[in-house]
Amino acid sequence: MVQVCVIYDKIRFEERILHNKITEKGFTSNLVDGKSLVFNTNSEKVDFELGDIIFQREISHYRGLYVTSCLESLGFKVINPFSVSEICGNKLLTSLALVKHHVPTPNTSFAFSSSSALQLMDKLGYPLVVKPLVGSWGRGVYLIKDRSAAEILIDSREEIGSPLSRIYYIQEKIDRPPRDIRCIVIAENIVASIYRNAAENEWLTNVAIGGTTEQVQMNPELEEITLRAAKAVGGGILGIDLMEDTKRGYLVHEINNTVEFRGASMVSTQDIPAAMIDYLVHECRK
Q1: pTM of the entire structure?
Q2: Could you tell me if residue 219 is inside a domain?
Q3: Are 173 and 204 in contact (CB under 8 A)?
Q4: Residues 67, 127: one domain?
Q5: How many domains does the chain fold into?
Q6: Is the pLDDT score of 201 beyond 70?
Q7: Count of beta carbons in the 10 Å neighbourhood of residue 97
Q8: Is 216 a member of any domain?
Q9: Phi, psi torsion values for 134, nearest 5 degrees
């Protein structure tokens, strides 16, 4: 019997549903808190009673990334693998991967000091969107409307101790409806596609900050761009986020490696967690 290990650092709606779905399908579920794991250079696979395949669901990007690296070094198969997690968890790397594979994406610039960032924003013109390299749920994402706002943001970023805060990811503001599109991709299949509508008086669309969801009817163009984006970062179980530019059409702006699906489950006709488990078991048996 296949044992599926779900590694978490906080049990959310998704982890509870996945655990129930694994057992409902007749497999063995093993929920493991990633914070409890300890490795050393002499560790062997037999030292860990985890399971036949690992589903990495940790919220912390860096913890999840390096736990995955340790597990893979011992011979465990992890979904998603380190190579995919590293790209998707870093917006700069995601943008570079999308451009390399000719996936339409917003015009984005990178600066590596406060002075060059300010000069760049002045040159590009306002408004602009500045995002942290690592982060989710819209945290640290700011709409910069003028030079004064840019200076305030840069001053606050320079006071933060993290080296990543001094790398600036600067993106054009897309002329779009007050919504974006989240497509959940498993391997080469789109199992759910939803609009995430911004809450009243809010320009961000994240469900975590009040956005609402409704189902999207797929079309060939949306499907083709979404699947190309998933392939560009290495595939697996992913959340592809797109915006609808009024002139250029669909633009992929982010890819989520540890995709949440509570909002999608409310409106989708597909059993999203069941599809995830089927994929994990299929990969385990390969």
Answers
A1: 0.92
A2: yes
A3: no
A4: no
A5: 3
A6: no
A7: 20
A8: yes
A9: -125, 130
